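Sample entry (292 residues):
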Amino acid sequence: MQDEIVRAMTRDGFVKAVAIRSTALTERARQIHKTLPTATAALGRALAAASMMGNMQKTKDGSVTLRFHGGGPLGTILAVSDWQGNVRGWVENPQISLMEKYRGKLDVGAAVGTDGTLTVIRDLRMKEPYTGSVALVSGEIAEDVTQYFAQSEQTPTACALGVLVDVDQSVRAAGGYLVQLLPGAPEDVIAKIEAGIERAGAVTKMLDGGMDAETMLQTVLSDFDVEILEHTPVAYRCYCSRERVRDTLLSLGRKELAEIRDEGKPIDITCQFCDAVYTFTPSDVGEILENL
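Predicted structure, serialized as tokens:
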């Protein structure tokens, strides 16, 4: 089943929602970063959240970056989405493995930590990107995203995320949803959303049972008449290139580049988001120096 994002709105105009099935892209991230299960779950949740938020803002060529830094053993977690929802990410310490919170439940909160912040950077293709930051609530990712929307954007939001890791450490299921109240929504709408979320249960259980993103949304919003607005395929996608890496080398400055050239050995630069390796020979570095 292909990864995709589904956007919807209730016909009464009081609720908008988005859901994602992100199993394949999370597995791709696991393979690139060689994450152990706890890191896989944390990074996978962050990727799903970033993907939905990037898709929701619909600013062409814009992006959304989520940065979780909670002081836990995983270190910093970064997830970046383009305007369609294609996403890439990185975790500082991918080989961290913690005990389960209870059987079948990885302790993501302890691995991420709560002594820090979630920072959201929205690039809306204006002069300066919008940056908002909130204190982490639990380190479980979904609760922290909910807190961000409540504090920084004053939007009542329900966020649920999940990553199910199989016995061979591969990703068996991953995804989530965001449900948001629109202005003017009456109190009974909140009660209906809460009841629907409780009936639907865990994201991983729904996805592992064969649900796609649309069915998951319909299940959560079963008390509403839902209009599906859009289906968008998404993937783990990195936009690195030799030209971009070359620009990074330029930022080192003349002195350091001259030292690299004079050492006479090629250098390999690996993209932090994917497994691409870019090799620059002393001659390549000399050419960069000439263009400074």
